[in-house]
Write a structure and sequence with these properties.
Length: 253
């Protein structure tokens, strides 16, 4: 896997470039999740929900319009058809169905993005689908095929994930992602959300972890979850810390 990162720029004597992304557009009707208005100005890329795990059409249209106004790159955060579970429950979807579901989500968000003068520039899986695509070859193949059906996009995912290997084989750009606000185990995997300490909430700790992940050079994008407590403050702290370390925040797509 040849995941994109900021290292080549650093080797050339230029500021290292790193993307800062967050999950947004996850409110639904009168149910509000996160503070996208305050979070988006700190980002270079926005993983916008597509209506399957979260988000409704009006929310998504407002979200992509706000991203466009701020010159924040829009990515499609596709997930399982699971509003009740917020897409965090694994669903053993047949590959053909998953391929169609992902293509449907991409098409829906692209239509809303075009209406706001922007476009869908990359794909990031959400929640349980994100984690399934680390090892489930059948589902990973379905997602890659959906991206190819759409015309091709960069794919953002966990370092070493099967979906990134398959995307690379298919000629798609891939970007490895690190998580600023999630605790890691010693083997490089994330501490499950069901365990204590899985979510980092102290801005200084989140900024420090982001800087460590970025300086390692193994990831090209850092994520702050939009539904984390005080996500805008966390993203602001991450951005300040990275810029203070001489890094440049910019979208990869």
């Amino acid at each position: 896997m040849d995941a994109l990162s900021g290292s080549p720029a650093a080797l050339a004597g230029e500021p290292e470039v790193i993307d800062l992304n967050a999950d947004v557009g996850e409110s639904f009707g009168r149910w509000q999740l996160g503070d996208d208005e305050a979070l988006l100005p700190h980002l270079s890329s926005a993983n916008v929900a597509c209506g399957f795990h979260a988000g409704d059409p009006a929310t998504l249209r407002r979200t992509v319009a706000r991203a466009a106004a701020l010159s924040v790159t829009v990515g499609a955060q596709v997930g399982y058809r699971d509003l009740a579970g917020f897409g965090r429950r694994f669903i053993d979807v047949a590959p053909d169905d998953l391929r169609a579901d992902v293509l449907y989500q991409l098409g829906a968000l692209e239509g809303l993005a075009r209406a706001s003068g922007t476009r869908v520039a990359y794909l990031k899986p959400h929640g349980a689908l994100y984690h399934a695509l680390r090892s489930d070859r059948g589902q990973a193949e379905a997602v890659v095929q959906a991206v190819l059906d759409f015309g091709g996009l960069p794919v953002l995912g966990f370092p070493g994930a099967v979906v990134l290997d398959l995307a690379t084989e298919a000629g798609l750009p891939v970007v490895a992602e690190g998580f600023a606000d999630r605790a890691y185990r010693s083997d490089g995997t994330l501490v499950p959300r069901t365990e204590p300490g899985a979510l980092l909430t102290d801005p200084d700790a989140v900024a420090a972890q982001a800087a460590a992940l970025a300086s390692d050079g193994a990831v090209g994008s850092l994520c702050v979850h939009g539904d984390s407590p005080d996500a805008p403050a966390l993203a602001a702290a991450v951005r300040r810390g990275l810029e203070s370390a001489g890094m440049r925040i910019a979208a990869f797509a």
